[in-house]
Specification:
CATH topology: Nucleoside Triphosphate Pyrophosphohydrolase
Radius of gyration: 16 Å
Number of strands: 7
Number of domains: 1
Low-confidence stretches: 156-160
Number of helices: 3
CATH superfamily: Nucleoside Triphosphate Pyrophosphohydrolase
Shape: globular
Length: 160
């Protein structure tokens, strides 16, 4: 089992900026290090797992949704310190994703899930969002607005 708290090396994780009908999906964390905070779905990759496979698995586990990762939005470090010690250190690959199936429900380490409009993640609403998370969401949302989602579908309008 990986040692998440006070690790001996950085842990690699993934996140998903899921855009659907102009909204982004957020999860409320049920565990540390972000207990109670709203964030994008995601988690740690497993040994032998590809990054995009981890995105698909983590989103399904946390939200019940099936997604297709479209492209990398950002690669970043998330380091939480406890004085001079590193309490948590994650290297996270955040991907822009689109929904391909499933039924939305909070599961795994998500206390709640909800779709949010752009004004909600860009304001001081009741949502508790980290500024880095807001930056990643905004970057993914901006990229999604420039994509031709229909072009991502195969012949006859069916998802690849």
């Amino acid at each position: 089992m990986l040692q998440r708290e006070y690790p001996v090396a950085p842990l690699v994780g993934v996140g998903a900026v899921i855009v659907n009908e102009g909204r982004v999906l957020l999860v409320q964390r049920a565990t540390e290090p972000a207990l109670g905070r709203w964030s994008i779905p995601g988690g740690l990759i497993e040994i032998g797992e590809m990054l995009t496979g981890a995105v698909i698995r983590e989103v399904l586990e946390e939200t019940g949704l099936e997604v297709e990762p479209i492209e990398l939005v950002e690669l970043l470090d998330r380091i939480h310190r406890d004085g001079d010690r590193v309490r948590y250190h994650y290297v996270i690959a955040d991907y822009l994703c689109r929904v391909t199936g499933g039924t939305l429900k909070a599961a795994s380490d998500a206390a709640a899930v909800r779709w949010v409009e752009r004004a909600e993640w860009n304001s001081h609403s009741a949502l508790i969002l980290d500024p880095i998370t807001v930056r990643v969401i905004e970057a993914g949302w901006q990229r999604a607005t420039t994509l031709d989602w229909q072009a991502l579908d195969g012949p006859g309008g069916k998802t690849r």
